Amino acid sequence: MSIRNRIAPILAIAVTASLFNAEIGAAVDSLPGPAQSTVLQSATRLNVPRAFPVGEEPIGATDYRPQDHLRQGLEIPESTAHEPSGNFQLICTFSHFAYDDPIVAPGRPGQSHLHTFFGNTGADANSTYESLRTTGESTCQGGPLNRSAYWMPTVIDGSGRAVVPDLISVYYTGRGRNTAGQWVDVAELVPGLRMIAGSIPGAANTDSRHRWFCGTNQVKARTIPSSCDADEEVLVTLDFPDCWDGRHLDVADHRSHVAYQRYHPTTGQPYCPSTHPVAIPKFTLNVYFSHEGDTSDWHLVSDRMANTRQHPDGESFHADWFGAWDPDALSTWTSRCINGQLNCEWGNLGDGTGLSINENYDGPKRVRVPTRPGG
Questions:
Q1: How far apart are CA 64 and CA 169, in angstroms?
Q2: Do the beta carbons of residue 201 and residue 212 sit within 8 Å?
Q3: Most distant CA pair in the chain, distance
Q4: Are strands 115-119 and 366-368 parallel, antiparallel or unpaired?
Q5: Is 181 buried (19+), middle (13-18) or exposed (0-12) by CB count in 10 A?
Q6: Contacts by 16-19 with C-beta closer than 8 Å and gap 24+?
Q7: Integer Cα distance of 92 and 97 in angstroms
Q8: Rounded average pLDDT over 157-172
Q9: Is the omega angle on the peptide bond into residue 84 within 30 degrees of 0, that is, cis?
């Protein structure tokens, strides 16, 4: 089945998963005072720093014609102002496996557990914002318009083979109303921002916002389901933080420069804490796996790391993101789809254009685990 034919159920599951995670993960905090509210109102419209000045991106970042990677003549998506919300969704397929992690172990190839990469085909331990923007193809819709890298710990089946996911759905949403009931715009994702969300391998992770479930019944749990029918996919979903400190592209723990929004205890309206005042688009990562009714013996490589706490199968799920969007494409979907409160599906940018359609991954779904370099 083509990716396009599966887009409707993917979107339905993404919305359900996002709402579920918001319900179980919302931190109920006290309402910010007047002074803090003023800061929050203005912070969402900050001119956030760019890694390179406009028009001065590194050589190679514009070695493509954007129009070659856009669909033209699309309808403007329907408004979601009545909800209120703003949505933007795209699809990426599998790229490669590597024992690399350019966020946790930069410049140290082969020093990480095995990761499954999506997006930029050249992502490795030496990746930087500049290298991602200037090199590599992309398995995401829009090709070089989204050279971002996404990665997760690899799933291993009972025979010791690596499981190749069918695809990932990246579902961006806006913030909605603030504590005063007013719609709040979000800031663009600053170029070069990177972050990790989900469990920390070796830790208890009682607050991890990932959930595994079967595609049909959608009963969510912290571990890989063992009873999905063979004709339904196994999914895992994870919400990334949606508040930024406004200063750091990364920090030592790769997490504390971003935070999850909080919710007013009476109205339920979201707001960003004063430590992280810049509202950014929240994205939910949804990963889809085909199977043959044999998921009871699947696990993540991060579940069974040597010399650390062992996890039940799938409990240590986490994911990394290293942003490398084309600035114009990023600005368009942020302003038109998220802040413009439109329902932008299938890479629709909300301005009559849309990201080009990527190809299905047509390789094997179970492969021998790659040999670690130097191993």
A1: 24
A2: no
A3: 59
A4: unpaired
A5: exposed
A6: 16/218, 17/211, 17/213, 17/218, 17/220, 17/235, 17/237, 17/284, 17/286, 18/171, 18/173, 18/237, 18/239, 18/282, 18/284
A7: 15
A8: 96
A9: yes
- SS3 of residue 40 by DSSP: helix
| Tens of pLDDT, residues 4-22 | 555 455 455 444 444 433 4
CA–CA distance, 34 with 37 (Å, rounded to integer): 5
Band (pLDDT 50/70/90 cuts) for residue 313 is very high
Q: Which of 42-51, 53-62, 200-209, 253-262 has the highest mean pLDDT?
A: 253-262
* 3-class DSSP state of 119: strand
Note whether 99 and 110 are within 8 A (CB): yes
Q: Does the pLDDT at position 132 exceed 80?
A: yes
What's the mean pLDDT in 169-187? 84
Residue closest to 112 by CA, chosen among 103, 121, 120? 103
Task: Pick the more confident residue, 192 or 49.
Answer: 192
226 CB-near residues (< 8 Å, 6+ apart):
295, 296
Task: Phi first, then psi: give them for residue 248, nearest 5 degrees.
Answer: -105, 135
* Angle, vertex CA 292, rays to CA 140 and CA 170, nearest 5: 20
Q: Which pair of tokens denotes residue 232?
A: 């339904």
Q: Which two tokens stand for residue 182?
A: 């007013």
Query: φ, ψ for residue 41 (rounded to 5)?
Result: -65, -45
Say which residue the tokens 């179980």 belong to: 24
- Mean pLDDT over the full length of the chain: 85
* pLDDT for res 252: 96
The set of long-range contacts for 102-107, using a CB threshold of 8 Å and a minimum separation of 24, is 102/126, 102/127, 102/128, 102/149, 102/322, 103/194, 103/196, 103/250, 103/254, 103/320, 103/322, 104/196, 104/254, 104/320
Strand pairing report for 258-259 and 194-198: unpaired
Three-state SS for 55?
Answer: coil
